[in-house]
Write a structure and sequence with these properties.
Elements (H helix, E strand, L loop, with lengths): L12 E4 L4 H6 L1 E11 L4 E3 L8 H4 L2 E8 L2 E5 L2 E5 L3 E6 L4 E5 L4 E10 L2 H11 L5 E3 L3 H16 L6 H18 L8 H12 L6 H7 L4 H12 L3 H19 L4 H7 L5 H12 L3 H6 L3
Antiparallel strand pairs: 1-2, 2-9, 3-8, 4-7, 4-9, 5-6, 5-8, 7-10
Helix pairs in contact: 4-5, 7-8, 10-11
């Protein structure tokens, strides 16, 4: 494939996708995808002609580096993506990138969708604002890129829901790779503690004390690593357990309230209905 970009070698491939109005309303969708092999002459700046096209600057860019390294500057901050590393940025923002040597191989994807902005913000938030981070599973990420490349080779329109599913899976992988829940970290230790004690009257202050942090610092750290608060984690564990007890036992709602760590039946019913949409009694009759 002949790609007229300085530094892009001849075995590189690039494919274009034009989303339907349905895809723009409902799906994630690719606009371009490529698998590039590059020499050190390769560079791309956000003020070049291609970057100013709507097909580029209105979308989000995702890289997976296979060999060599990419040096990036996004909104004035320099960073470097090594093999197995990912880079994600909003093409509406100032950006440029280039090969760090003579042997660069990387996948790239321009994409968008109704929830793309929300995913982008959440992924960056969970990675501390960094645009470059390691892939939790480079082989799986590469497989997903390869599937999009294969779709680009098709001689007919690709099912857009299939492309959307791949992009959604990629974005979920990026969210998962940011979760700092290893057992030897404060967040990991706190989750193990909450899992053991959520059926008692457990408070966020108790959990924070267990991992040696103030409640405010712990809450901030937990949210940064997981995307939600420790209080919500405790609530969800209790609600999940309550659902199981409602359907598998004959215990009263009051008994289940105390069995799952609530100090009153009223507080349990209020929390359950807020999360599930029906009361515990209604859930027992019609599980949802």
């Amino acid at each position: 494939m002949d790609i007229h970009e300085p530094g892009v070698l001849s075995r590189s491939v690039r494919y274009f996708f034009t989303p339907s109005s349905l895809a723009e309303r409902l799906f994630f969708y690719p606009t371009r995808v490529g698998h590039y092999y590059c020499g050190r002459q390769y560079r791309f700046g956000w003020q070049c002609e291609v970057a100013r096209e709507a097909g580029h600057h209105l979308n989000f860019m995702l890289f997976l580096v296979r060999r060599g390294a990419l040096e990036l500057n996004v909104e004035g901050v320099s960073c470097r993506a090594e093999p197995g590393g990912l880079a994600l940025f909003d093409c509406k923002k100032q950006h440029e990138y280039r090969a760090a040597g003579d042997d660069l191989e990387f996948y790239w994807l321009l994409f968008n969708g109704v929830q793309a902005e929300a995913f982008y913000r959440q992924i960056l938030s969970l990675h501390g604002g960094s645009h470059v981070f390691p892939s939790a599973d480079p082989a799986q990420t590469r497989l997903l890129f390869d599937r999009l490349i294969t779709y680009g080779e098709f001689q007919q329109r690709v099912p857009e829901h299939a492309c959307s599913e791949i992009i959604y899976t990629l974005l979920c992988e990026l969210l998962a790779s940011s979760a700092d829940t290893a057992c030897d970290t404060p967040v990991g230790r706190s989750i193990a503690f909450m899992d053991r004690h959520f059926e008692s009257e457990l408070s966020v202050e108790e959990v924070a004390a267990h991992v040696g942090l103030s409640s405010s610092h712990f809450t901030k750290l937990f949210r940064a690593r997981t995307g939600y608060s420790p209080y919500e984690y405790i609530t969800l564990r209790r609600i999940d357990r309550a659902k199981s007890l409602l359907l598998s036992t004959g215990r009263t709602v009051r008994q289940i309230a105390f069995d799952t760590g609530y100090n009153s039946e009223e507080n349990f019913i209020r929390a359950f209905k807020k999360k599930v949409g029906v009361s515990p009694t209604g859930f027992r009759r019609y599980p949802v």
